[in-house]
Structure formats: structure tokens, C-alpha cells
Amino acid sequence: MGPGDLNKLTHPENRTEVIKAEELLTEARQLITTIGVPRASVVRFVGRPDVRVCAPLCKTSAELEDKALTMAEIASLFMKDLSAISGQKVSWSLSQPIAESEPQGTGAAAPKVNTSTLDTVEQQSDLVHQARKEGFTEDTLTMCKDDKVAKVYKLIEYTGTKARMSLQEAGHSTEVVVVEVADVLKSWRVHKGSVTMLMPGWSAADSPANPLDASYLKLEVAKAKCLLAVTKVFRTFHADSLSKIELLVKPNSVRATTELAPGELVPAPMSTRFEKKKSETSWSMGRGST
Fold it and tell me: The pTM is what?
């Protein structure tokens, strides 16, 4: 293409033909995807109709073909190329691609062509269907291109030809707006970034993150209660008992300074530590030792 070819393509006189060419090339690409043309061959199969469509619009057909081709002739050549690579006869009406089940030649049966990805006439005129294809499904976050201040909305539902959306602010749905689906396709886009939201699973009434419900804290509380009980027992036994004894060394021993009845002098617990095995530092306390 030369420097002036772009001007030829955009010239008002060629507008009708350009629109037809765009439709042909768009459907050609859809058909290539549907049939499953090998990736290595896609560029070649897309390039041929591209050049053949642009050539007559740029008045350069004589350089490429023996004659200027019409849209129908270009489509026919395109179908011939597809039939060769797919192994089946493919026909196309520029709005409804059809793959015939008769294979060319003998051999294995021709594979079926999946046309489920192509829209029917009803689907093409259904704005809600087209919006969903563009990603505007329920619960999707969206943004209006015309907003001077960026606002994020959640698409709630479709009602007829209208879409209900709720403004998202600090994790809450606030203002509800109703937008025509046609305007959604024209002036809105899907928001692909993050948005502020409430922490999942958290509630003030019954929070799994409440430390008072944690098992480790309950254990610490139980241990503290035991320590308070031991302290109370120690205070009861201790009182002024130290004033009634003397601590001696060589050998280490204890001597009472007042007369004590047998069994009156006993060790007072001051620890919650409980040793199951007898050791040199343990005192016998019934079944166990501490």
C-alpha cells in the first residue's frame, strides 16, 4: 500500500464498500476460529482476503489479480481455501456460514464444524446478550467512561433493555442507577482493578478473629486462675512462719525457733508446675509431686 492508499480507504465515496469489507473480514475471522484452522496457517488465510478486499478499494487490483474481484468472488475464493485445509466443502452467505457434511474425496469422515460460537440473528439484535459477551455479566464491576471522577459500580441485573447498577463505596452498595443497555455497550467498560470491600467472613456479632474465643487464650486464662489459687494457698500457709524458723548451712537444714507439733511445718506451694516423676527437687504431694 502506498502513502495515498489510506486516504482512498477513508474517502466518503468508499464508505459503503468499506463497511461491506469490514463485515466480510470480521465474519471470515470468526469462521477461521470456528473451523479451527491451524495457528501456523491463520496469518496466510487472513492475509489473502485482506489484500483482495483492499486492492479494489485502493484501485490496485490490476497489480494482484487479472481483474477486480467482487465481495462475493472474494468470499468464494476464501471458502475454496478453507475447504482445502478443513477437508470438507464449506459454503458461506456472508451472514450465515454453513459447513456441508459431504467430505471431498474418499477417506475418513470430515470433522463437524462447531458454529456455536457464532451468534444467531436474534442474538445479534439482543443487546443484553451482546453486553454479556463483552463481559458485562451480573456482579461484574463496571465504570462509566464519561465520569470525571472515577466511580465503580456493580451490575445487579438486567431488566428488559435496562441494567441496574449499584455504586460501590467503602465496601457498601449505596446509590442505585438504571442505565440503558445500549449506553452500557457504548459508554461503559469492565473494571479490571481492585475495589475496597468488606473483609469476608467478619462480623462484629460473631467474629472468628475475636481473641477471647481463641483456644490458646482460654488456656492462658485457666493457667492464671490456677496461679491465683496457688498464691492464695501460699499466703494462708506462709503468714509469719518465716519468723519461727532458722535456715542453717553445713549442713543445709531448718530449725524451728518455737515448739512445733509434728506435721505442723509443711511446704507451701508457690508454682503451678506439676512433675509426674519423682526428682531431687520435688516434694511428695499425695499421688503426684510438685
Answer: 0.36
How many angstroms separate the CA atoms of 1 and 222, rounded? 86
- 114 plus 12 within the same structural domain: yes
**Predicted confidence pLDDT, tens digits, the chain (290 residues):** 555 666 666 677 767 777 777 777 787 777 777 767 777 677 776 777 777 777 766 766 555 566 667 777 777 777 777 777 666 666 655 544 434 334 444 443 444 444 445 667 788 788 999 899 889 999 899 999 888 888 999 999 999 889 999 999 888 888 899 999 999 999 999 998 888 888 877 777 766 666 777 788 888 888 899 888 888 888 877 767 777 888 899 888 888 888 878 777 777 777 777 667 777 766 665 544 44
Q: Judge contact between 168 and 152, C-beta under 8 A.
A: yes
- Please report whether residue 222 resides in a domain: no
The 3-state DSSP class for residue 179 equals: strand
Cα 80 to Cα 49, 207, 278: the distances in Å are 12, 67, 97
Domain tally for the chain?
3
Domain of 130, in residue numbers: 124-190
21 and 105 in a single domain? The answer is yes
Residue 150 belongs to a domain with what CATH number? 2.30.30
